[in-house]
Amino acid sequence: MSFFENTLKNIAEAAKIMKLDAKVEVVLQHPKRVLEVSIPVERDNGQVEVVQGFRVQHNDAAGPYKGGVRFHEDVNMDEVKALATLMTLKCAVVNLPLGGAKGGIAIDPVAYSPKELEQITRRYVRLIEPFIGPETDVPAPDVNTDAQVMAWIADEYSKLKEKNMWGVVTGKPVSFGGSVGRDDATSQGGMFILDELMRSFGKEAKNTRVVIQGFGNAGANMANILYLNGYNIIAVSDSKGGLYCEHGLDPLATMKCKVKSGSVADCGGEEFQPKAGDSCKRVSNEELLRLDCDVLVLAALENQITEKNANEVQAKIIFELANGPTTIEADEILAKRNIIVIPDILANAGGVTVSYFEMVQNKQNYYWDSQEVADKLKKVMVAAWENVAKNREKYACTYRQAAFITALYRLSDILTLRGLS
Ligand code: NAD
Q: What CATH number does residue 93 fall under?
C-alpha cells in the first residue's frame, strides 16, 4: 500500500468509528490542487539538467494552506499527496486556522553545491509563485531544508512581488522575520505531549529509556530537549547507522562528534563511557528499532515500522516525530501487542504551531520572546492532547484513531459550514 493510500485508509477507519458524514470524507480523500514543475539547473560544471518539483494543496477550508518543502531523492507525487493530507489533519488536531499542503524537490541535496541549491530553490519559487502567498499557501522547512532555504524563498517571492513579503514562508532566520523557538518547536511540542503521556502512567522522566531514530532537525533537538528534562537517551541513529550506550548518552556531545566524524555511528569513544562498566556500541539501523526501551522516537522518514519488523519492536511506546513512519499493517500488529503509538499528526504538531506563531508575528510586525512562544506552544499542545485523550476513551480506540477523529470533527464542522468549500 502506498503512503497516500495508507493515509486515506487511516481517514476511512476514523470516519467509520465516528460515523463521519460521507460527503466530508470524500472531499478529504482528494487534494484540491496538485502541481508538478520541471526545474532547469545549470550545474557548476556548465551542464544543464532538469529536476522535478512538487506542491500539493490538500485542503484550505480552515485557512491558508500550510506545509513544508522537502529536498530528497525519493520525493514523488504519492508521498507529497500523503504529507499534504496529513498537514490538513495536523493543523486541525491542534486547532490552527490553517489548511494543509506539502512540497518537495526530487534531488539528493548533498550532490549539489550551495550555489546550485539556491538556483533550484529560486526557480522552484518562480514556478509555483502564482499559487503561494501569505494568505494562500505558506511553505516551511522539512527534510533537508532549513532557514537558509526559507530565506531564499522569502527573498525570491518578495522580488517577484516587488515588495517585502516575508510572510510567504515560515522557518526563516530570526534576523529575517523568523520566530524564536521555531528551530526546536517540533521537538519542544513533542516533549509536552510525551510528558502528558508519561504523567498519565505516573512514570518519571529519569526512569524512562528513550531510543531515537534520526538525528536531524527533529531527532537531534528531541534528544537534547528530553535529555535536558531528565529523560535517559540510550541510543540514536542517522542514515549511516546507530550508537547504543546502555547507561545513557549526552546528545550535545554526540552532535559535536557527528559534525566531526560524519555519523553518530562513529561516536561512543572513551569520553562517552566515563564510569567503569559503561559501554557503547555501534548498532545497525535495523537493530536500533528492535532495542529494548520505554520510548522509541521515530524522527527520520516514512515507512520505518512495517509488517516486517513490527513484531520485533520492544519499545512500550512509539512516538512519531516523523511523518508516516508506521504503516497501517504495522499499526494493527502494534495494537495487538499493546504497544502505544502516539501519531505524527499530534506528536510533531509543535513545528506547524510555531510556524503559525511566526505568521501571526509577521502580520503584526511585532515579535515575541522565547518564553511567550514556549508558553503559547505548551497551551496548544496540552489542549490537543486532552482532546485526543478524551476521544480515545470515548471511542475505545488507538491514539492514532483518536487524533484523526479529533481532526475530522473540526474539519467536518468547517466544511459543512462552508458548503464543502
Ligand atoms: P532532517 O533531514 O533534518 O533529518 C532526518 C534525519 O534522519 C537525518 O539525521 C538522517 O540521517 C536520518 N535518517 C534518514 N534515514 C534514516 C534511517 N533509515 N535510519 C536512521 N536515520 C535515518 O529532517 P527533519 O526535519 O528532522 O525531519 C525528519 C522527520 O520529521 C520527517 O518525517 C519530517 O517530515 C518530520 N517533521 C519535521 C518537522 C521539522 O520542523 N523539521 C516538523 C514536523 C515533522
A: 3.40.50.10860
Assigned domain for 178 exists: no
Domain boundary among 164, 194, 226: 164
Domain final position from 269, 300, 331: 300
pLDDT, mean of each 10-residue run, the chain (421 residues): 95 98 97 98 98 98 98 98 98 98 98 98 98 98 96 98 96 97 95 96 94 96 97 97 96 96 93 85 97 98 96 98 96 97 98 98 96 98 98 98 98 96 78
Question: 258 CA distance to ligand 1 centroid (A)?
Answer: 15
Structural domain including 203 reads: 185-300
To the query of whether residue 102 is one of the catalytic residues in this protein, the response is: yes
- Ligand 1 atom 42: residue of nearest CA: 351
DSSP letter at 56 equals: E
How far apart are the C-alpha atoms of 55 and 128, rounded to whole Å? 8
Side-chain half-sphere CA neighbours of 209 within 13 A: 14
Q: Does the CB atom of residue 237 touch ligand 1 within 6 A?
A: yes
Q: Is the CB of 361 under 6 A from ligand 1?
A: no
Ligand 1 atom at minimal distance to the Cα of residue 302: 32
Distance from C-alpha of 420 to C-alpha of 309, rounded to nearest angstrom: 40
Q: Which of 32, 102, 172, 316 is catalytic?
A: 102
Q: What is the pTM of this model?
A: 0.96
Please indicate whether residue 141, judged by its CB atom, sits closer than 6 Å to ligand 1: yes
Closest ligand 1 atom, residue 142 Cα: 25
Would you say 178 and 147 are in contact if contact means Cβ atoms under 8 Å apart?
Answer: yes
Q: What angle do CA 5, 8, 10 make, to 5 degrees?
A: 110
